[in-house]
Amino acid sequence: MKILTLGPEGTFSHELALKLKKKKDEIVLLPTIRSIMAAVERGDGEGIVPIENSEAGGVGETQDGLARSPLFITAEMYLPVHHNLASLVSMKKMRVIYAHPQTHEQCSDKIEQWGLPVIHTSSNASSAREAKKTPNAGAILSETAAAIYKMPVIVRNTENSRTNTTRFVRIAREPARDRRPEKCSVLIDPSTDRSGLLHDLLEVFASRGINLSRIESRPSKRGIGNYVFFLDLAWTKKTPEALAALKEITEIKELGCYKKIEVKP
After folding, report:
1. Prior bond to 190 cis, omega within 30?
2. Domain range for residue 28?
3. Of 69, 109, 114, whose CA–CA distance to 94 is shortest?
4. N or C: which end of the chain has fewer CB within 10 A?
């Protein structure tokens, strides 16, 4: 099986793919989440993409892609994320830092203390490449990326929280076939804006004792003040009944019911 995930080598997505890879699997590194989803739609393989971080919140590109594509979430994985400041020069000589926007947000406390300007890049690996060719520059990246790009680590564990974790999902053209999944994800796209709508939507789950582990709004792309909602909910015997009741209130897209895959350290 082909595992499609974010490259180049040294990204956290690549690190996770290596941990999940089985003997006959092939890892294919692609430059963007959009390109991963397009490849999965073509049938090139299954994708692994980040969907939320404990510090920085939801990954908009993944959520927007799930909203517009016919793909399904078939599993979830959690990866502890630790960042490091790496450079070819000492901290005293450093004049600029390269970092991915999500990495910047996850390490904002330390970056604020250093008082150095930050240039955003498309990936942690790109940060390493830019820092290597820029005089007096540093990059915030994983220990794996620092080793791959031969950049000495100057400061370890630059993340704001030691429990910093990124949640990834596996995406495929067909839904998972688990008889007893652990979680379901749903996209709610309200066709009307009326008083009490959100209360009515949440009551569907509250009245059946179904726990919601996440609810997040995203712009619908149809104009200011127009939103869609992503919900993650626990699977119970009453979940199918709740989803059916939800469809009577509003338009929904079922993104899949699935299990958690444990990631080896």
Report:
1. no
2. 2-79+165-172
3. 114
4. C
